[in-house]
Amino acid sequence: MSKDLFGKAILDYHLGKYTEDLKTETSISEEDDLPLPYLFRAYAEMPRIEQQALQLSKGKVLDVGCGAGSHALYLQNERGLEVTAIDISEGAIATCKLRGVEDARHQDLMQMEGETFDTILLLMNGAGLCGRLNRISTFLQQLKRLLRPNGQILLDSSDIIYMFDEDEDGGRLIPADMAYYGELDYIVKYKGDVEPPFDWMYIDYNTLQNAAIANGFDCELIEEGNHYDYLARLTEAL
Are 233 and 220 in contact (CB under 8 A)? Predict the structure, then answer.
């Protein structure tokens, strides 16, 4: 069961109880700090890829994995869009409500039904919510059910092939027991407590494009970032 350390940290920061940052670790990387102020960044402080996604958003928006609500607040207050912000973290949703997000819900994307949206946002590696590549079709089909005609899915991710050592021929040394090199076990630590590891995934653009096409989407590369990251747009194929 989740301890919601992510949510506790976000809520602590908002309530003025900020004493330390979140610590994250994965099955292929060492412990690193995730600065809490970064989760509360204003539009001007966001990476170009996120700014681009917010400018491309239109109509009724679903912000998936909304965290502290920074994207939702910009779309709601600066763009005047109707935004539904969802997260599986109770602390994150409590923070969103305190910050003024009008429709913030403690909700699992995969359990949503009965609503549709013009734009579905999956930012800060929102594709990672899929967890494992063998679940990508189920994930994309759920997104399709939530998408209105002529709607769009905007998501960012990264190709983490660079994290693996090169062999003598310039190829990458991927462990034989990895089904896909972008799949990780992700661990969150906060104030001496540790969250049980959970599935996470970074998906390279070509793999995403192939999965999208196989599930009835067109996939467009909108922008590439400075560190193997990218923004993609999925629309239902005609």
Answer: yes
CA 36, CA 22: separation in Å to the nearest integer? 7
**Helices (runs of H) and strands (runs of E) counted in the chain:** 6, 12
Among 12-26, 89-103, 125-139, 170-184, the range scoring the smallest mean pLDDT is 170-184
The secondary element (H helix, E strand) that includes residue 77 is none
- pTM for the predicted model, two decimal places: 0.95
Judge contact between 10 and 67, C-beta under 8 A.
Answer: yes
Does residue 80 fall inside a structural domain?
A: yes
Both structure tokens of 142: 């759920």
pLDDT band at 210 (very low <50, low <70, confident <90, very high): very high
Query: Which tokens belong to 35?
Result: 């600065």
CATH number of the domain enclosing 118: 3.40.50.150
